[in-house]
Specification:
Blueprint: H1 5-19, E1 23-25, H2 30-36, H3 57-69, H4 88-103, H5 108-113, H6 116-122, H7 130-154, H8 158-163, H9 169-176, E2 185-188, E3 191-194, H10 197-209, H11 232-238, E4 242-244, H12 246-253, H13 263-285, H14 292-302, H15 306-309
Antiparallel strand pairs: 1-4, 2-3
Helix pairs in contact: 1-13, 2-13, 3-10, 6-7, 9-10
């Protein structure tokens, strides 16, 4: 019997962790690390209405799908013109929220026609900067693809895509992964390594935004893995759960770009997923009802603290995070 798509993510992450040359999980530290986490203080995941559109349920679906179609670019964010006191992600989410509030949700046909210049206007960016011109081009391409996909398969209906998942987060990941911009898969030696970070996050965000009801109800949310981006591994590195080989650590600390699809980048992401699985297992042994989704939210918020922001995290220019 073949593995489901999320079990394939877990199995490949474990395989990479075993083989890894640049990243090591300090498994012996996990019991003490887990014991030190104030996990009882972890609040339920939520989307802040200051930065996210949370109006009509159908428009929320359109917002979450539209946002997560372009929820990448962390390797470009040092060049992004950010809103005061907001990160790159919150700048993007807020600008899109304001567009929904002033003009309503995008229609699929609109998404098909959007240009890099349109994206620059929506996100208040200047295309003179080459990295930003490249990023806005990628945003436009991702939105064009989403629009065509909705028209070709769901009569242009965002909700139709979600309904086709039949209340399964795992099925929604499979459906989204039919689009190339969501096909978050790398090859490590001879191992195919899927991550599906944005596809998984789409299911999580729909559930959070809609209270796991209506279009946001999924009966298998605990199946999701942690979302392998560049912040969660950074938190685990600062917390000494992940240990980086000296040359990789030096590159990151010098704020050099880590190439997309390199052994180093794949190991960072895969070891993050496997480390999270080990942490969740230890938390459950201690009686905590914690999923990878809740752990992700906890660690992501932990990463907003000054001691984590003070140190460089890895930067990769990719469409996957």
């Amino acid at each position: 019997m073949s593995l489901g798509i999320l079990d394939r993510v877990r199995a490949a992450a474990q395989e990479v962790a075993v083989r890894a040359n640049y990243v090591r999980i300090d498994e012996s530290s996990i019991p003490a690390y887990v014991a030190s986490l104030p996990i009882e203080q972890a609040s339920s995941p939520k989307l802040d209405p200051r930065y996210h559109y949370l109006g009509d349920p159908r428009e929320i679906v359109a917002y979450i799908l539209t946002l997560n179609a372009i929820n990448f670019g962390s390797g470009y964010f040092p060049h992004l013109q950010k809103r005061p006191r907001l990160s790159g992600y919150f700048t993007i989410a807020t600008c899109l929220k304001e567009r929904f509030e002033t003009r309503g949700a995008f229609r699929a046909r609109e998404l098909c026609r959007l240009t890099p210049e349109d994206c620059a206007n929506i996100f208040e960016q200047n295309l003179i900067k080459p990295p930003i011109r490249e990023l806005m081009g990628l945003f436009a391409s991702a939105w064009n693809e989403l629009g065509r996909h909705l028209l070709d398969r769901y009569e242009g209906d965002f909700v139709g895509l979600v309904n086709a998942a039949d209340s399964s987060a795992e099925r929604l990941v499979e459906l989204l992964a039919k689009m190339p911009h969501f096909q978050d898969i790398q090859t490590y030696s001879n191992v195919e390594v899927p991550f599906y970070k944005r596809a998984q996050l789409t299911a999580a965000d729909l559930s959070i935004a809609l209270g796991n009801q209506s279009f946001g109800f999924f009966n298998d949310l605990p199946r999701l893995t942690i979302f392998a981006d560049n912040l969660i591994p950074h938190v685990l590195r600062v917390d000494n759960v992940l240990q980086y080989e000296q040359s990789l650590a030096a590159k990151i600390d010098a704020e050099e770009l880590i190439g997309a699809g390199t052994e180093e980048e794949i190991e960072i992401r895969a070891c993050t997923i496997h480390a999270a699985e080990l942490i969740v297992a230890q938390l459950r042994r201690l009686g905590h009802k914690v999923s990878a989704l809740k752990l992700d939210y906890f660690l992501w918020n932990r990463g907003q603290q000054p001691e984590y922001k003070a140190r460089p995290r890895h930067r990769t220019r990719t469409i996957f995070y």
